[in-house]
Amino acid sequence: MPLSDKDGKLSNNIHIRREEVNGEICRMFKQELIDAIKPYTTKAVQLPAEARPQQLPEAAVFLVACGAHDDDLLGSVAIIPLSHDSITARGLPSDVKAAEIKRMIVRPEHRQRGLGRKLLERIEDVARNEMGIRLVVLETWHTLDHACDFYQNSRYRRRKVFGLYDAIESQCYEKYLGDEV
Questions:
Q1: 11 DSSP 8-state letter
Q2: pLDDT for res 180
Q3: Angle at 119 between CA 118 and CA 125, to 5 degrees
Q4: What is the number of other CB atoms lying within 10 angstroms of the CB of residue 10?
Q5: What percent of the chain has pLDDT over 90?
Q6: Which of 6, 34, 125, 131 has the most other CB atoms within 10 Å of its CB?
Q7: What is the mean pLDDT of residues 63-69?
Q8: What does DSSP assign to residue 68?
Q9: Its pTM surpasses 0.70
Q10: Are strands 15-19 and 61-66 parallel, antiparallel or unpaired?
């Protein structure tokens, strides 16, 4: 099934849907993400559990990109609202409603076709329009050059680490969501 036309644009066969937070598909993509970053990490992840939760909070939203058939899963992204009194929001401004992007992954065979950008745009829309979020933050491994480039090309700015992330291994980004569409 072609995901893109001759110019590399997404085909009309792609759709993005909400999935159950912490359901089977969410757990599957979390494991894929863990497996995908293993070759890029320079040391064992030894962060507190709050920094890399096994379960997303119930207030999270989890989206999945699908192909022509609903069981053709191509990628995922989640967003978690952050409470200013939580240690996971340490270092973030307290005067703005913030959320963190988690579990952003596009399966390797579907990359470089605009799918990641579409997932990111959709989760930003959910954050802005449904959750009232104005600041979106995220963390990735500093050794994942393709991820860092992707976020910078998506108008995310580098920022100092926040919450419980490791200043040596982590690269953090932020984007203020205005009323732009």
A1: P
A2: 52
A3: 90
A4: 16
A5: 50
A6: 131
A7: 90
A8: S
A9: yes
A10: antiparallel
CA dihedral over 8, 10, 172, 105, signed as positive or negative:
negative
Cβ atoms of 40 and 143 within 8 Å: the answer is: yes
3-state SS track over 76-140: EEEEEEECCCCHHHCCCCCCCCEEEEEEEEECHHHCCCCHHHHHHHHHHHHHHHHHCCCEEEEEE
Expressed in percent and rounded to 5, the helix, strand and coil fractions of the chain are 25, 25, 45
Six-digit token pair at 91?
């270092």
Element (H, E) at 176: strand 170-176
Find, among 58, 36, 17, the residue nearest to 106 by Cα: 36
* C-alpha 162, offset from chain centre: 16
Q: What is the pLDDT of residues 131-178, one digit of tens each?
A: 999 999 999 988 888 899 999 999 999 999 998 887 778 899 999 998
Q: Domains in the chain, ordered, with CATH?
A: 15-176 (3.40.630.30)
